[in-house]
Automatic annotation (TrEMBL):
<dbReference type="Pfam" id="PF00005">
    <property type="entry name" value="ABC_tran"/>
</dbReference>
<dbReference type="InterPro" id="IPR003439">
    <property type="entry name" value="ABC_transporter-like_ATP-bd"/>
</dbReference>
<dbReference type="InterPro" id="IPR003593">
    <property type="entry name" value="AAA+_ATPase"/>
</dbReference>
<protein>
    <submittedName>
        <fullName>ABC transporter ATP-binding protein</fullName>
    </submittedName>
</protein>
<keyword id="KW-0067">ATP-binding</keyword>
<dbReference type="InterPro" id="IPR051782">
    <property type="entry name" value="ABC_Transporter_VariousFunc"/>
</dbReference>
<keyword id="KW-0547">Nucleotide-binding</keyword>
<feature type="domain" description="ABC transporter">
    <location>
        <begin position="5"/>
        <end position="230"/>
    </location>
</feature>
<dbReference type="GO" id="GO:0005524">
    <property type="term" value="F:ATP binding"/>
</dbReference>
<dbReference type="InterPro" id="IPR027417">
    <property type="entry name" value="P-loop_NTPase"/>
</dbReference>
<keyword id="KW-0813">Transport</keyword>
Length: 296
C-alpha cells in the first residue's frame, strides 16, 4: 500500500494544552479522503502538521514519503488550502496566478488560466472584492495548479451556499479525475463528503475511531433493532459501535463482516451520516470504542 500520510503518536501542544495528542493514522494514496469529527477533535491541527505549517511537539508524520515542510521538493508535493480559503485581499486573480508561478516549481499556468476562464472569474478583480465562493474557487485553483501529489483542504466549503458548495466539489472532483490527485478534505458536512469522498476517517479527541473505504465501511455496518437485550451477549464477530435502549427495545450499530442470522433483530443498512454519528456520539457508546480499520 502506498501511503499518502503516516502519523505515529503524533502530537502538538500549546503550552500545557494538547491540540492533538498521540494520533496514529495511515492514509493510503490515491483516494479522496473525508476527515470528519467534532469541534476541537484536532482535525485542523492534523492537517496543518501534514502541510508543514505546524511542527509536531511529539511523534512523527510523513506525507508523500517525506517530512512536511522539509525543503522545496516536499513543499511542491503537497498543496494546502487552509480554513477560510486564504487569499491575498489586495491582489487580483492574475497577480495570484503570477505569484503561484513564482513560488511553485511545477506550476501549471495553462491549467490555472483554463480554470479561471471556465469559472468566469475576472483576472483583474481583487480577491478582497470577490464572493466567498469565488475566493474558494481561486484558492482551489492555486492548490491544483501547483500540481501537488496530495491536496489538503481544511473545511473549504464551510462558508459557501449550497450551490457554490456543489460547484466547488464538482470542480474538485474534475481535478481529481484529470490530474491523478490525492485529496484529504475536512468537513462537517457529511452529505458533501458522501458525494465527494471514497475514504473516510472519523477523528474524535485526537484518536481515529474508524478509517476505511466508504463502500466497505457502509457494507460492514448495520443497524439492529429488536427486543431489549444486553449488547455484551452478541456473537464475537459483531463489534458494537453504539447502543441505545428504551424499556423494551434495543437499537445497535454494529460492525461485522459476518451475516446476521438472529431472527430477533430487524437489520437495516446505514448511510454515511448514521455511521459518522455512531462513532462521534459518546451517548451511544457501550464500552471502549474499537479503533477499526477495514482491511483490504
Ligand atoms: N493556536 C492554538 N492555541 C491553543 N490551543 C489551540 C490552538 N489551536 C488549536 N487549539 C486547541 O486544540 C484543539 C484542537 O483544535 P483544532 O482546530 O485542531 O480542532 P478541529 O477538529 O479542527 O475543530 P473544528 O471542527 O472546530 O475546526 C482545540 O481544543 C483547540 O482549542
Amino acid at each position: 500500500m502506498t501511503t499518502a500520510l503516516r502519523a505515529r503518536a503524533l502530537g502538538r501542544s500549546y503550552g500545557r494544552r494538547w491540540a492533538l495528542r498521540d494520533c496514529t493514522l495511515d492514509i493510503p494514496a490515491g483516494h479522496v479522503v473525508g476527515l470528519v469529527g467534532p469541534n476541537g477533535a484536532g482535525k485542523s491541527t492534523l492537517l496543518n502538521l501534514a502541510a508543514g505549517t505546524l511542527a509536531p511537539t511529539a511523534g512523527t508524520i510523513e506525507v508523500c514519503g517525506g517530512r512536511p515542510g522539509d525543503g522545496p521538493g516536499q513543499l511542491a508535493k503537497v498543496g494546502f488550502v487552509a480554513q477560510d480559503t486564504p487569499v491575498y485581499a489586495g491582489l487580483s486573480v492574475e497577480e495570484h496566478l503570477r505569484l503561484g508561478a513564482r513560488l511553485n516549481p511545477a506550476w501549471d499556468g495553462a491549467l490555472a488560466r483554463e480554470r479561471i476562464a471556465r469559472l468566469g472569474l475576472d483576472g483583474a478583480q481583487r480577491a478582497g472584492r470577490m464572493s466567498g465562493g469565488q475566493r474558494a474557487q481561486l484558492a482551489l485553483t492555486l492548490g491544483i495548479a501547483k500540481r501537488p501529489e496530495l491536496l489538503i483542504l481544511d473545511e473549504p466549503v464551510a462558508a459557501l451556499d449550497p450551490l457554490a458548495r456543489r460547484d466547488f466539489l464538482q470542480s474538485l472532483m474534475e481535478a481529481v479525475a484529470e490530474h491523478d490527485l490525492g485529496v484529504v478534505l475536512s468537513s462537517h458536512l457529511v452529505s458533501d463528503l458522501e458525494r465527494s469522498c471514497d475514504y473516510l476517517i472519523v477523528l474524535v479527541d485526537s484518536r481515529v475511531q474508524v478509517a476505511g473505504e466508504v463502500d466497505e465501511l457502509l457494507a460492514a455496518h448495520h443497524r439492529l433493532t429488536g427486543p431489549r437485550r444486553d449488547p455484551a451477549r452478541l456473537p464475537a464477530g459483531q463489534h458494537v459501535v453504539s447502543a441505545r435502549h428504551t424499556d423494551r427495545q434495543t437499537t445497535l450499530i454494529v460492525r461485522t463482516e459476518d451475516p446476521i442470522h438472529d431472527p430477533a433483530w430487524s437489520v437495516s443498512g446505514l448511510d454515511l451520516e448514521d455511521l459518522v454519528l455512531a462513532y462521534m456520539d459518546p451517548q451511544g457508546e457501550t464500552g471502549p470504542r474499537p479503533t477499526l480499520e477495514v482491511r483490504r
